[in-house]
Design goal:
It is a single chain. By secondary structure, the chain is α+β, with helices and mostly antiparallel strands. 40% of the residues lie in helices and 10% in strands. The strands form 4 sheets. The protein has a 5-stranded mixed β-sheet with strand order 2-1-5-10-11, with helices on one face. Strands 7-6-14-13-12 form a 5-stranded antiparallel β-sheet, with helices on both faces. Strand 6 and strand 7 form a beta hairpin. Helix 3 crosses helix 11. It starts with a helix and ends in a 10-residue tail after the last helix. The N terminus and C terminus are likely disordered.
């Protein structure tokens, strides 16, 4: 009997548990439903107006203008014209709904069927690292784009669903579709169908046809993978899937599907990447310190001159030796960057050799040596002696293999005589030369070994060009800049460049003397290939073993620096500063200054009183530079063998024309008592020595 009673009780107990479980589930469901309703009501009340949602930013767009105002590149998100629902072609709406949310007109903002399917897929792929996909409705995508982010988490998914339910309560299906089609990202920086249509097909979205609409609708799933500009074949393949979905959803008939030939769709050509991107890559990061506007679209007006940029690119490409790279920077008299070439081809290599690479400048560095000497009292006519020199075991030699004896400073600079540069470095002090380079804008480390006078410290092309531009500006500091002003899309001024002429680096007569020396270098010395039919002042530079070739100079208010060499710093046999770089300089400058008036250099300036006595009348005696035959070192100060001395001593093969010897100078008079009496007019009045 007991067993019988127990068996009777068992079904009753199970039934009671089922009832309790049902009640608990019902209460939990009602509670969850109530919580969702409360959450939706709260979200509904917090939703902004429709106009506010239309104006919510998708990201910051930056349009970059050249000096003539033309747009040279658009960066960040791009936005087309806002289209109302009635302006959007029906095929575009049908393509998007069929592809992204085929039950859009039936669900309340979330799709229970889609969620169930996505949950099942998620359970099947648990532990495989795959994301929950396929459950988001168009409404959910709108809420994610406007209010949330793309992180994959359960918390974000719940907030997304609540906002989607609230959005459907507040706005109509048409309004939500209008928001979606005007704000969804289609790749290539294009937000909204009008921006996408203009980017990929070259016309407004109001004229989209069926195959174009299918291509655009197919981009939403993976904009980078299906972009027509990145992979046209993938884009067309995805568009075929969209057309099939449209047919299955009843948006088009089988006959309409069969009549579409996606291969006939004409894509808008992608603007080619060109050398101007070297400039924009350098200039645009400066916006972070110039303006504080993280959201509004910006209009950035720059200094780049497209005609000069084209000429610069052509000059580099036409003159760079095979296997080498080239770079060019061109500054206007106030520092405005008019052209910048960072390499032969931006698409192949976006490494900017004009602003980033550091290379040895060779004898182009001598401008700092000679300016230090001019500031110390030398003039272009001061007498110097080209002779063997040994400094702390370092013995520079001239590439001509000979010494010219007594000459003047102008001749020594024009023919880039290394022994004279070394002697000047000793006299003014190597730290003084380094200080002069720092003063003129060299930002890289500078060594003070004796060999530094021949340019053994690595520099950047833009820094060296800046230094030459400051000399051209008569000693006033020049700071390269690329941005003239920044405004918002509605014209509100955020930044305006102001020229600063307050920093004077050297006295005008020092800059004039340096200009005199550099003009001679181009007229009769190592830089003759840089002549352009009007006054030019400049300097060549070639490092040991022809690893780097430089020419920097200025004319008619434009200062240009050219560098050539290999990225791996291997020698280039035909590379010399007075050849390919000088030719590239001339090719470019003929175009750059063609519309500017010819300007004569002001090289005759009034010297300070202590400089009025001719330097050749001062007698300093023979400098004590050792007996010669000292150990020779390379550009890094390392000893080299006698076998290497003939081929690698930091000299410049192009800087010593063999066919023309520098003119000799008469020996200056000895500074003795007789000379003093002659100067003071006391001859014949002084008693004879006892």
């Amino acid at each position: 009997m007991a067993r019988s009673g127990k068996s009777k009780d068992t079904p009753g107990g199970a039934k009671r548990w089922l009832v309790r479980a049902f009640k608990f589930g019902l209460v939990a469901t009602l509670g969850a439903l109530f919580a969702i309703i409360v959450a939706v009501v709260i979200a509904y009340q917090s939703l902004p107006s429709y106009e506010s949602l239309k104006s919510s930013p998708n990201g910051q767009m930056i349009r970059v203008h050249a000096a003539d105002g033309s747009v040279i590149v658009s960066l960040g998100p791009s936005f087309g014209r806002w289209l109302s629902y009635d302006q959007i072609p029906t095929v575009m709406v049908d393509a998007m709904v069929s592809t992204e949310d085929k039950r859009y007109y039936m669900h309340p903002g979330v799709d229970p069927i889609g969620m169930a399917r996505a949950t099942w897929v998620a359970l099947e792929n648990r532990g495989k690292g795959r994301r929950w996909q396929g459950a988001s409705t168009i409404t959910q995508q709108v809420t994610r784009n406007i209010f949330l982010n793309n992180s994959y988490s359960w918390g974000r998914k719940v907030r997304e669903m609540i906002l989607a339910l609230a959005l459907e309560r507040k706005f109509s299906k048409r309004q939500i579709l209008e928001l979606y089609l005007n704000k969804v990202y289609f790749g290539g920086g294009a937000y909204g169908i009008d921006a996408a249509s203009r980017k990929f097909f070259g016309h407004p979205a109001t004229t989209l046809d069926l195959p174009e609409a299918a291509i655009i609708a197919g981009l939403v799933k993976a904009p980078s993978s299906y972009s027509p500009t990145a992979d046209a074949e993938a884009a067309i393949g995805r568009a075929g899937v969209v057309l099939q979905l449209m047919q299955e959803n009843g948006a088009i008939s089988a006959a309409e599907r069969a009549s579409v030939d996606l291969d006939d769709v004409k894509m808008a050509p992608e603007p080619p990447q060109n050398s101007v991107r070297y400039f924009t890559d350098w200039a645009l990061p400066q916006l972070d310190v110039l303006v504080d506007e993280p959201n509004e679209p910006l209009e950035v007006y720059t200094t780049i001159d497209l005609g000069m940029q084209k000429a610069a690119t052509a000059a580099i490409q036409a003159n760079v030796p095979g296997g080498a790279q080239g770079a060019l920077v061109s500054l206007d008299r106030d520092g405005a960057v008019r052209a910048m070439v960072g390499g032969l081809d931006y698409v192949t290599s976006n490494y900017n050799r004009a602003t980033t690479a550091t290379r040895q400048p060779g004898s182009a560095w001598k401008i700092f040596v000679y300016m230090a000497a001019l500031e110390a009292g030398y003039t272009p006519d001061t007498g110097v002696t080209d002779k063997p020199v040994t400094i702390n075991g370092w013995s520079p030699r001239n590439s001509s293999g000979r010494f010219s004896g007594d000459i003047d400073v102008r001749t020594a600079f024009a023919y880039s005589i290394n022994t004279v540069a070394a002697q000047l470095g000793v006299e003014v002090g190597f730290p003084t030369v380094a200080d002069m380079a720092r003063r003129f804008g060299v930002t890289t480390p500078i060594n003070t070994h004796p060999s530094m006078v021949l340019g053994t410290s690595d520099v950047r092309l833009i820094d060296m060009t800046r230094a030459f531009a400051s000399i051209a500006r008569k000693g006033v500091a020049v700071t390269p800049y690329g941005i003239t002003k920044v405004t918002t899309a509605d014209g509100r001024l955020l930044y305006q460049h102001q020229d600063d002429t307050s920093r004077v680096l050297v006295a005008p007569w020092v800059a004039a003397g340096m200009t005199d020396l550099m003009q001679t270098a181009v007229s009769t010395g190592t830089g003759k290939a840089a002549q352009i039919g009007r006054p030019v002042a400049g300097k060549t530079g070639t490092t040991s073993s022809n690893k780097d070739g430089w020419f920097l100079g200025f004319s008619s208010g434009i200062t240009t620096g050219v560098w050539m060499g290999r990225d791996d710093a291997r020698p280039v046999g035909v590379l010399q500063g007075g050849r390919a770089p000088a030719h590239a300089f001339a090719d470019y400058m003929k175009v750059a200054v063609s519309r500017r008036p010819v300007e004569q250099f002001e090289t005759q300036v009034t010297l300070p009183e202590w400089q009025l006595e001719p330097d050749e009348e001062a007698y300093y005696g023979e400098p004590d530079n050792g007996s010669g035959g000292g150990m020779m070192v390379d550009e890094n100060g390392m000893p080299i063998s006698q076998d290497q001395q003939q081929e690698d001593d930091g000299t410049e093969p192009d800087d010593q024309p063999v066919e023309q010897a520098p003119p000799a100078r008469t020996t200056p008079p000895r500074l003795d008592q007789q000379w003093i009496d002659q100067v003071l007019g006391r001859e014949g009045r002084r008693p004879p020595p006892r």
